[in-house]
Amino acid sequence: MKKQMQTHKATAQLTTRLTAQLTRAESAACAAHIAHTAQATQAAHATQIGQTACAALTAQAVRATQATKATQTTNTAFSASVRQALTKCELLQGLNLSPKNTMLKELKRGQITSDSINGRAACGLVVTGTIDVYNVAADGHEIRLSRLHAGDCFGLANLFGNASLKTVLKCHKNATVLFFSKQLLCNALQNDLALANRLLQFYCQKVDFLLLRIEHLTMHFASGKLSEYLLAQSASQTTVTLEMTKDELASQLGISRATLYRELKRLTKLGGIKVEKRTIVILRPQVLQDLASWDK
Question: Which residues are 273's β-sheet partners?
Fold first, then answer.
């Protein structure tokens, strides 16, 4: 009996120890599982955050790239048109012009402009389109002096004076003009001898042009005006392509439209020219020379 009690007691103690060990093992396993689950959850959360952040950065980068491409496209178009006009304008070669010290302005057909921008004296470079230069007589009659094309400048005649020009600048076709400060050009002239020489050549050409225009306007007979004009436009060529309407040509010559048509027919009958729409073929230059010299 006593021996059975001892065996029973030993069995109970062993059972207790095994139960305790099993409990500790289960607890450790449970804790490890919980820790592993927590780590996995944190990793998944971090991955999700990383993916979200990566997607946001990618989207931002795409938007930035698209904006940059759009800006580059705009700047490229702007720079190309301005560079092309500057290339045509020998006078302004080497002048430090940039978007920071210039202003690009769009003009509509018939719009009047001037050699100033925002109240400040400025020069203008025609980038696209055409602009007519008019002089208004005392009776209000407009006389077209010249037509400016891409690469031509205006606002230089009074560069060193304070008086405003009496001429009128009217947009003939939709045009784009690059305005820059006259002071900018004056400052550049102080250190650029080549630019100063080109400006003097420009003024000499303008004087010759104005003398010829005065000669045309003071001719008494329309035949002499028209002949002189055709000879000047043809130079060494045998054809003159009119870049204006007959009405505009009559205005430039200071004669009426009817007179212009009459003189064209007269020169055709004399065998001096042949009119083909806007092209005038010079058949006998001597006929035109005789009429032009006889009127002087």
Answer: 282
Whether the model pTM is above 0.85: no
Q: What is the pLDDT of residues 245-290, one digit of tens each?
A: 888 888 888 888 888 888 888 889 888 889 888 888 988 888 888 8
54-111 pLDDT, tens digit each: 565 556 555 555 544 433 333 344 478 888 999 999 999 888 888 888 999 999 999 9
Half-sphere exposure of 180 (CA within 13 A, CB side): 22
DSSP code of 101? S
> Does residue 66 sit within a domain?
no
Residue 165's domain comprises: 102-191
d(CA 101, CA 183): 11
Query: Structurally, how many domains does the chain consist of?
Result: 2
Are 229 and 177 contained in the same domain? Answer: no
DSSP code of residue 292: H
Evaluate whether residue 113 is within a structural domain.
yes
The pLDDT tens digits of the residues spanning 23-50 come to 555 555 555 555 565 565 565 555 565 5
Q: Which two tokens stand for residue 150?
A: 């891409």
Domain stop point among 191, 207, 234: 191
115 burial (CB, 10 Å; 0-12 / 13-18 / 19+) is buried
Q: Which residues, in sequence order, are CB contacts of 238 under 8 Å at separation 6+?
A: 281, 282
Residue-wise pLDDT tens digits, 3-19: 555 555 555 555 566 45
CATH code, 278: 1.10.10.10
